[in-house]
Amino acid sequence: MSLGLGSRLFSRWLPRQRRSLSAWGVDVGTSAIKAVQLKLQDGQLRYHVRLAIPRDNNGTSRLADELASVFSRRHLCQQKDAFAVVSFSRTQLDTFELPPGSSAELRMMTRAELEDSGRRNFVADCWSMGAESPVNGDGQTVAVSALSMSEAESVEIAEDMLAVGLRCRVLDGLPFALARAANWAAGSRSVAAIDLGTSVSTFVSIYNGRPRMIRPLRDCSTTELLRRLADRLNLPIEECRLLLPNLPEVTAAASDSWRQLLHSVTDAYLNHLGQELTRTLAYLDRNPRSNRPEEVWLFGAGATWPGLRKKLEPLVGRPVRCWSLEPSATDSVPEEAIFGPAAAMAMLSLSDQTRTRRARS
Length: 361
Fold this sequence. Notes:
Layout: H1 7-13, E1 21-28, E2 32-41, E3 44-54, H2 63-71, E4 80-86, E5 92-98, H3 103-116, E6 121-128, E7 142-150, H4 151-162, E8 166-173, H5 174-186, E9 191-196, E10 201-207, E11 210-217, H6 222-233, H7 237-243, H8 247-253, H9 256-286, E12 296-299, H10 308-316, E13 320-322, H11 340-360
Parallel strand pairs: 1-4, 4-8, 9-12, 12-13
Antiparallel strand pairs: 1-2, 2-3, 5-7, 6-7, 9-10, 10-11
Helix pairs in contact: 1-5, 2-4, 5-11, 6-7, 6-9, 8-9, 9-10
């Protein structure tokens, strides 16, 4: 796994690239696989392929079979490089107190800490939290965060992707993909990204294209909202999943009693989500050594819920936007927010291709 280049660097070379390039990015999620192929030509970046593939058995089925079911049907099986990202729930986040050092030294020390704890994990990346990190009284250690996952699991993902012709060159953690995607849309400003995922919702504060603080938001996954709806409506969760995208229309057409019931469930969930966000943002706001997020960017399945952005803005007290490949379209195409991490990995692949071509020329 690798952190690689920031997407802001990518945006600077866009106007100078004339030859057509393409790249695959894959987001291996719990309930769906998102795969995109981006094309860059004449300084314009656009989607060439955009796929959302539902997963069976809550993400426990074989990735190769799920990819093949779509790639073979659409004749997409070909030998192509791909950069991939895994969901936050498949990684482990640790914080260690380590002596200051270079990135390579911190990575070596982090691996040693993980092995000493009995976990031979493959480290996705580790980073010092900089000004926000607590340094001990004598200044000899610094807080270092590390994101890791099972090496066997990472190899399995790469092998499954290769089965459909995708050579996995990079396997990264979700916070880094969110940081690149947000940086592409917002530049180097201090922002926050929230991935409203099926199994967990993840908050990431981002400064200059890098993650700073990462926090899972308690009981804020989209499954939590579905569970609340299922309990109150006495329906299976899968039926509630179909109901969610059309909830405003369903609520408007419902009888008074049903409308009140739907409002009570959704409002309770939104209020809880707002409280978790407000509490997290308040910590960053009052910490004089942190960078206050100027705005919040939404990703994941929950971001596609109609009206969510407008409901959250007054709760968090700053602009809330749904991510899009074209930032000016963030208000009109919230469904693009589910493709943000995959698109960010494709951008990183395009950046890598361009650096390679420049080195050869």
